[in-house]
Write a structure and sequence with these properties.
Chain A is an alpha+beta fold. Chain A is built from 9 helices and 22 strands. Chain B has 451 residues and is an alpha+beta fold. The longest helix of chain B has 18 residues. Classes of the chains: A alpha+beta (466), B alpha+beta (451). At the A-B interface, strand 2, strand 3, helix 3, strand 7 and strand 8 of A face strand 2, strand 3, helix 2, strand 4 and strand 6 of B.
């Protein structure tokens, strides 16, 4: 039912010919048709069902070091040719003649969804929301509010470029989240759990939903007993699954080739050097089937791949998109992504994770006399030039005498990427992944992060207690 | 009537049975130029248009709303959105408070928010502004080793909203920005600094201000150290105080209050802040970049007093949250584009100006920290519980003056505590993009986590 059938080989070749006519070195057409739907339940009311559709094309033309870009919602050949001319206006050396572009064989990829979102009745989605609400409320009497959301997107795209790349993909993503508020003598506390995958509604079983709802409620209830977090440097144990985002922020962004080539990263010029504890092997891997950052091909038509960034502490490579790879005379690593047809692709992560180790999580905790156990990290932010980062702890506990004790109120932890990589002194064998949304230069893309339970010898905890 | 508003009225004619329709249309164009090493690195030009439709179905005991949107004004896109919104409404819970805004007789203030020079300025001049900015920053100081990004952006946008209850509103807006990130080095380590200039047209922009700020911020952070942990008074610069105000504003949303998600709930009339804190939300003040004649439901925006001399005086409401609270809309519906539904929120916060300059505040304090940037705000601040813990960079204040730079440090408190602990408000109001204007703000009792 998508409107990309009219976008044929001949049509794309014509548009690319116009885009190249003024002397461009490279041109690309990206045509996208995306439908989304969402439903939300709040205070036991089904508040809003929303459906949306966005379709259009983005065209870029590269001339030397300059990129011209234009996008349009008009998918007629006339609409795309007008956009191609606008994008090509950066190229001023061409004579305006006819340039012939020949596309290669088309590669088509299909979504992994076995239950497509559009085949799920709206009443079934609402039943899922109510189920989560019931489970969360029955977890504890102090649960005063429950907010549950379900959303899905179905994204078809075709990408073709002047070097002959011609590919299409269909990406289906499904997401469910539960947020709970617990009310106690100490005020309100919140708990949150997401379920998300690059799959269809088969990931939303009643058991999974109940588990997320109980988890979110339990987290809010536990935090009612929370005391202010300490202030200062302490050893930190990151629970399996939740800490991957720290490495995404703390070093992943600094390993993106655009930051490297502009000398705006602490990791520039460090390939082959020991940059982390030998326990650290960091991988960015778009091929992890069904994970939130999974891609068959990236938004430049390049098949995704598994790229080892740091191996046993040694920096092995960066992440590349088409443009950065071209500047460096190599090939893309499949990390060219864009939020939509209205955005230019740039180097982005997919699923970024640390390989697991061999220790047991319980032993790591038992061998930590005093520290902080982080059961859930929220979002974070990094300055790639300095490597300094900040992270929110949304569920954390004290570790005292090798045991997990008092829950802590929400606070940030702060550190420096290159420094924290060297502070990894234990990695367990309980690997898992978490979905997230990564923002860069105003563009949001889905990403996965993962790791096993691990310990950092010292991180600054930004609490208020001494 | 603008063409876009006429188009919205045309869609209202497709109302079926006893339902009500609300149509929100937007259209616009934007230009973005990024310069690097004296050349254009990226040039982007685009137009876009979209429609957001809400359908209200009333029945005994309440009503239901369904929503749909499309990133196009094509006939088939509008028809699909109408059909989907109608279908979605069937599945919403019946709610006695749910409805659309009715015209409330408050006249909209006329505001000049668009400047024709955005369209009439030749592209080559815009490109030159971006390239000149990059060059100026690069050559301003020998310690600047790189310009991470330097760019010019502008936009022209129009929005129209109409409903079968008789709401009919439209307005146009333009904007232009210059922004730059500089990287300075002292040979052993690097620091970044950011500068910008904002206006409604390229004529309003001042590249020298953007250059000066970026270079000063980057170079004076060189040699930054992690300070020892302490409890002290922090002076937030106008940009960071605007961020704080925006977070406090989110807890003053009537929607957060009626949903029990604000630490201000049940505290109306109480003293919630220091005597020197008076906060209004005033989208009718044209100096604010977010100024607007109409809110996200098409009602006239108005000046709302939120905190006066420390006392909590009111919240901002849209139609539905006002009904739940037993009051009237304050013209404060926000709408996040065509895909968003209206919800109550602050649009143009402004703190009553104090008497002192930033330097006078430093001298009055003697010792403290000066906060120049905040990181991890979305993860470290919980507007429901009020917990506050963010990363900062800035400088120490010693003997009333700026001293050594500091980094890799967090500041923490609770929003409730911070409001009570405001000791001085500066007179240096800066009009910034976003939902709050900023000025220097000194807050005591801040926990600083360092080494």
């Amino acid at each position: 039912m998508h409107s990309l059938e009219s976008v044929t080989r001949g049509f794309l070749e014509n548009v690319l010919g116009v885009a190249m006519a003024r002397g461009g070195d490279f041109a690309e057409v990206f045509v996208e048709d995306r439908t989304t739907s969402s439903a939300m339940l709040d205070q036991r009311r089904v508040e809003e069902l929303s459906s949306g559709r966005d379709r259009g094309a983005g065209i870029r033309v590269v001339v030397g070091e300059t990129t011209g870009f234009a996008h349009t919602a008009d998918l007629s050949e006339r609409g795309l040719i007008a956009a191609a001319e606008a994008a090509a206006s950066v190229a001023r050396r061409g004579g305006g003649g006819v340039v012939e572009v020949r596309l290669g064989e088309q590669r088509n990829y299909e979504s992994l969804a076995s239950i497509a979102p559009q085949d799920v009745e709206k009443s079934r989605k609402i039943a899922m929301l109510k189920h989560a609400d019931d489970v969360a409320r029955s977890t504890g009497a102090a649960i005063s509010q429950v907010q549950v959301g379900v959303g899905d997107s179905s994204r078809h795209f075709v990408v073709a470029n002047s070097e002959g790349v011609y590919a299409s993909d269909h990406q289906v993503r499904t997401r469910f989240n539960v947020q709970c508020v617990a009310l106690g003598d100490s005020g309100m506390q919140t708990g949150y759990r997401p379920i998300a995958g690059t799959r269809g509604f088969e990931i939303l079983t009643d058991e999974k939903i109940a588990e997320a709802a109980r988890g979110a409620a339990q987290q809010a209830l536990t935090k009612l007993r929370a005391r202010p977090a300490p202030s200062g440097d302490l050893p930190v144990v990151l629970a399996g699954g939740t800490g991957g985002i720290l490495f995404h922020e703390a070093c992943g962004h600094g390993l993106e080739a655009d930051a490297i080539l502009k000398q705006a990263s602490v990791y520039a010029g460090k390939v082959g050097e020991l940059v982390a504890s030998p326990l650290v092997t960091l991988v960015d891997d778009g091929t992890v089937s069904g994970e939130w950052g999974y891609l068959a091909i990236d938004d430049e038509g390049r098949p995704s791949s598994r790229n080892v960034l740091i191996e046993n502490g040694v920096l092995t490579d960066y992440m590349w998109d088409f443009l950065q790879a071209r500047k460096d005379g190599r090939s893309s690593s499949g990390n060219g992504r864009r939020q939509s047809y209205q955005h230019l692709p740039m180097v982005r992560m997919t699923n970024t994770y640390l390989l697991e180790g061999s220790e047991s999580a319980d032993e790591i905790i038992a061998q930590t006399p005093r520290g902080v156990y982080v059961a859930q990290l929220g979002g974070g932010q990094v300055n790639t030039t300095t490597g300094d980062f900040v992270f929110g702890m949304t569920a954390a506990f004290m570790i005292e005498d090798g045991k997990i004790t008092t829950p802590l109120r929400d606070c940030n932890l702060i550190g420096n990427g290159p420094d924290v990589l060297k502070r990894v002194d234990a990695v367990a064998n309980d690997f898992s992944m978490t979905p997230g949304t990564c923002g860069k230069d105003g563009q949001q893309v889905p990403v996965g992060t993962g790791q096993a339970t691990m310990r950092l010898t010292g991180v600054t905890i930004g609490g208020t207690a001494g | 009537m603008s063409e876009l508003l006429a188009q919205a009225h045309k869609i209202l004619e497709r109302v079926e049975g006893s339902e009500h329709i609300e149509v929100f249309l937007s259209s616009g164009s934007d230009t973005e130029i990024e310069a690097y090493q004296g050349k254009i690195e990226k040039f982007s030009s685009a137009t876009s248009a979209g429609v957001g439709i809400r359908i209200l179905q009333e029945s005994e005991g309440g009503a239901r709303i369904g929503t749909a949107w499309a990133g196009s004004l094509d006939e088939d896109a509008v028809a699909t959105a109408l059909r989907e919104a109608r279908d979605n409404a069937r599945y919403a819970s019946l709610d006695e408070y749910v409805t659309f805004a009715r015209p409330d007789g408050v006249a909209a203030v006329e505001l000049q928010l668009s400047d024709p020079s955005v369209a009439s300025t030749p592209l080559d001049e815009k490109i030159a502004m971006a390239i000149d900015l990059e060059k100026a920053v690069r050559s301003a100081d020998p310690r600047i080793r790189q310009v991470d990004s330097a760019g010019y952006t502008d936009y022209i946008s129009e929005a129209a909203l109409a409903s079968t209850f008789g709401v009919s509103a439209s307005y146009a807006r333009t904007g232009a920005y210059l922004s730059v990130v500089a990287i300075a080095t002292d040979g052993s380590s690097d620091q970044t600094g950011w500068g910008s200039s904002v206006g409604r047209s390229p004529r309003d922009l001042d590249g020298d201000v953007a250059t000066r700020d970026a270079v000063r911020r980057a170079t004076r952070m060189l040699g930054a150290v992690k300070p020892t942990s302490m409890k002290t008074t922090a002076v937030f610069d106008p940009r960071t105080s605007a961020t704080l105000l925006a977070i406090i504003g989110s807890a003053l949303s009537g929607e957060a209050v009626v949903r029990g998600r604000s630490f201000f709930a049940e505290r109306l009339g109480e003293v919630v802040a220091a005597q020197c804190v008076s906060l209004v939300d005033d989208p009718t003040d044209v100096r604010h970049f977010a100024a607007s004649p109409f809110d996200g439901e098409g009602l006239a925006c108005r000046r709302n007093v939120l905190i006066e001399n420390g006392q909590l005086r009111g919240f901002v409401y849209d139609t539905v949250s006002a009904r739940r609270a037993g009051t009237r809309s304050t013209g404060s519906a926000l709408r996040g584009g065509i895909a968003g539904s209206p919800s109550a929120g602050c649009r143009a916060l402004q703190l009553a100006s104090g008497a002192q300059t930033q330097e006078e505040i430093f001298r009055a304090l003697g010792d403290g920290i000066f906060v120049e940037s905040l990181t991890g705000v979305h993860s470290g601040v919980n507007p429901i519980s009020g917990d506050f813990s963010v990363g900062i960079t800035g400088l120490m204040i010693r003997n009333g003056e700026i001293a050594e730079p500091i980094r890799e440090v967090t500041v923490a408190s609770t929003l409730q505590r911070m409001l009570q602990d405001v000791v001085m408000v500066g007179n240096d109001v800066e009009w910034l993009p976003g939902s709050a204007a900023g000025q220097s703000l000194a807050i005591a009792g801040i926990s600083v986590s360092g080494s």
